[in-house]
Write a structure and sequence with these properties.
Radius of gyration of chain A: 19 Å
Structural class of chain A: mainly alpha
Largest sheet of chain B: 6 strands, mixed
Distance between the termini of chain A: 22 Å
Helix content of chain A: over 70%
Order of helices and strands of chain A: HHHHHHHHH
Strand content of chain B: 25-35%
Shape of chain A: globular
Shape of chain B: globular
Number of helices of chain B: 8
Strand content of chain A: under 5%
Helix content of chain B: 25-40%
Number of strands of chain B: 10
Strand order of the largest sheet of chain B: 6-7-8-3-9-10
Structural class of chain B: alpha/beta
Number of helices of chain A: 9
Oligomer: heterodimer
Order of helices and strands of chain B: EEEHEEEHHHEHEHEEHH
């Protein structure tokens, strides 16, 4: 995999020089610092505010970043595929060089603000950084997969927006409606599974389990804590989030391996 | 030597290459010509493994291209549309490709000089013009002196001076024994660049002849007329 390292190194350099990535990290750092300064200064309160931004903005930004990365690199990927490389080496080199930096934007941006302003509650920072990393990576991987899967840009962006709206806006509403309509039935297990089927919900629950904010956990989060206990809930949710990173990456790798360029 | 045996490729329901069987001997230069959407670029991409064939076999230097990507070490490729990572410099792009190909030393220098690219090397790709990107693409294809050159409309987008330099380099590489496979719409440059012409029409080879057989006097006008007649006949 030496070739993958070469590709990843250069791709990383290209991504880190992007003004867009620097602007995104700067905006996250400024927002976090502003919340720390004007939002009471307590990490728990700030985390809930940052979390709302992360859950709404990060998936969309990461999706678009993944799509644009592939579209911009398409001809260069074609040139690299004409070199003595295996497709897998090129794919993983490209993914490491593009997904990792965008997934690190929130942990780094938030970390700068946290280190300068808050300087405490590092455990909380750790879980928020980890979950935002996994969430960004997951949606960037979805973006890459969609851009490899379909040639028509309209279809790619349509699928991305649909995924984002479905998981960040509609999902909880549908779940709540289902819970209300089916309240006479034993649907706890189904709702527990439903929690695992949404990476945004997983990130939210993972962070809120670390904060004393039971009211914000929601039905599925409270259920999770009740079923597996607080100690096991966070690791379980993190594993679930990790699966949400692996699945789209695996799908993208399969698509890349068979794609005609 | 490049050998294609009964190569077929479809995109969706559309047949792009149909039962292509062609042999390109070592040290020969062949131009693939034909109207738009005839399958020219797809043919080159099949040889490079960028497009997977539906059926048929391709061998490069006696090795099936499905066995290993190593055969591409012998190939220099110039795509139709050169696009590179916008935030890397031209020098960094060259270094990247050198590392991937396992090339060391200043193998790019003669071509950087030939195409007057030295002053552009430290500029990020986003600051380079289309013509300069095409020159960079030419340097990437030629450096390391690969045995086989696969060039997709190589002179499109080059200014006349650079196009002349590029053609001179191609002639030198032919003389040195390189195999050249290129596509072009510029029939007038065929006599000076290639030994054979392969005409594709709707994914089928309708003609594969030495240039000399098509235009006995080597005249581009006669060659153009002969090719147009052949394409019209279908």
């Amino acid at each position: 995999m030496q070739a993958a390292q070469v590709i990843a190194r250069w791709e990383l350099r290209n991504t880190l020089r992007s003004r867009w990535v620097a602007g995104y990290a700067g905006a996250i750092a400024a927002l976090s610092a502003g919340l720390f300064i004007y939002g009471g200064g307590m990490p728990e309160q700030v985390v809930i505010s940052v979390l709302n931004v992360v859950l709404l903005v990060v998936p969309l930004v990461s999706l678009l970043f993944g799509i644009v990365s592939v579209h911009n690199a398409r001809e260069f990927l074609e040139l690299l595929l004409a070199q003595p490389l295996r497709r897998g080496e090129l794919f993983w080199g490209f993914v490491l060089g593009t997904v990792v930096p965008v997934a690190l934007v929130v942990p780094v941006g938030l970390g700068i603000a946290w280190g300068i302003v808050a300087r405490q509650g590092w455990g909380l920072y750790g879980i928020l950084a980890l979950e935002s990393f996994l969430l960004s990576g997951s949606f960037a991987a979805f973006g890459i997969w969609f851009a490899l899967r379909w040639e028509e840009r309209l279809k790619v962006f349509g699928a991305a927006i649909l995924l984002w709206v479905a998981l960040s806006v509609l999902y909880d509403g549908i779940l709540l409606g289902a819970a209300f309509l089916l309240q006479r039935y034993p649907i706890e297990r189904a709702l527990f599974v439903a929690l695992l089927l949404n990476p945004i919900d997983l990130a939210r629950v993972a962070v809120l389990l670390q904060v004393d904010a039971a009211a914000l956990l929601g039905y599925t989060g409270a259920l999770l804590r009740q079923v597996v206990g607080s100690a096991w809930a966070v690791p379980l949710v993190v594993v679930g989030s990790l699966c949400w990173l692996i699945v789209p990456l695996w799908q993208a790798a399969r698509t890349f391996a068979r794609k005609d360029f | 030597m490049i050998v294609l045996h009964r190569v077929c490729k479809r995109f969706g329901g559309q047949r792009v290459l149909e039962e292509i069987s062609v042999t390109i001997p070592a040290a020969r230069s062949v131009a693939v010509v034909g109207p738009n959407a005839a399958g020219k670029s797809t043919l080159l991409k099949c040889i490079l493994g960028l497009v997977r064939v539906d059926s048929g076999q391709i061998w490069v230097g006696g090795v099936s291209i499905e066995q290993t990507p190593e055969y591409r070490r012998r190939i220099g490729y110039m795509p139709q549309q050169p696009r590179f990572p916008e935030n890397l410099t031209a020098a960094e792009i060259i270094e990247l490709v050198k590392q991937v190909r396992g090339l060391s030393g200043a193998v790019e220098e003669p071509y950087v000089e030939r195409f007057a690219l030295a002053r552009e090397l430290d500029k990020p790709v986003r600051a380079l013009s289309g013509g300069t990107r095409q020159k960079l693409s030419a340097v990437l294809a030629l450096m390391g002196e690969p045995e086989i050159l696969v060039l997709d409309e190589p002179t499109a987008g080059l200014d006349p001076v650079t196009a002349q330099s590029f053609k001179a380099e191609l002639r030198a590489r032919r003389t040195a024994g390189a195999t050249v496979l290129l596509t072009t719409h510029i029939v007038s440059e065929l006599p000076e660049l290639v030994d054979e012409v392969l005409v594709l029409l709707e994914g089928r080879v309708v003609l594969h002849e030495p240039i000399a057989a098509l235009a006995t006097d080597g005249s581009p006008a006669v060659l153009e007329e002969a090719l147009v007649q052949r394409i019209r006949r279908g």
